[in-house]
Amino acid sequence: MMDERDNLWLSPEKHLVIECKNNEINNIDKDDIKQLGHSSQWFTNKYGNHKQPLLLLFHGQKKLEHNVQVSSLMYVVDQEKLDQLKSKLEIFRELVIQNFSNLNLDNLRQYLSQCDLLIDSFIATYMRKLK
């Protein structure tokens, strides 16, 4: 097992361990879920078991193969949600560029909120619970 994940987002309230397979065209299979399980174990080994991360899979599909078991902490950003995220990131980029000379923390937070890029709105908008 490698000692790193594709991405790790830590905030004071939430922790996301991210695996990226967004070019995958087949349904989510046992190997994908197994990789998320390894990611969960990596996080526990690195940060302890007092913090419980959400396990996020960027994947081309949202459907699970038959007999694939998932935990309540596993989510997916499928192709539809990824396209939506890309559009919002482009809007965010334009807002920052257009207002760069007046950019401050309040403006930046407003732009992040407007594009659903703050952690709670990111989870609610782009992440689907695996089931």
What does this molecule look like?
This protein is an alpha/beta fold and 131 residues long. Helix content is 43%, strand content 18%.
Low-confidence stretches: none
Shape: globular
What class do helices, strands and sheet pairing give?
A: alpha/beta
Spatial arrangement of strands, main beta sheet:
1-2-3-4-5
Strand residue percentage: 15-25%
Distance between the termini: 26 Å
The total of beta strands comes to 5
Tell me the count of domains. Answer: 1
Number of helices: 4
> How much helical structure, as a percent, in the residues?
40-55%
User: What is the mean pLDDT?
Assistant: 92
Biggest sheet statistics = 5 strands, mixed
Rg, Cα atoms, Å: 16 Å
H-E string: EEHEEHHHE
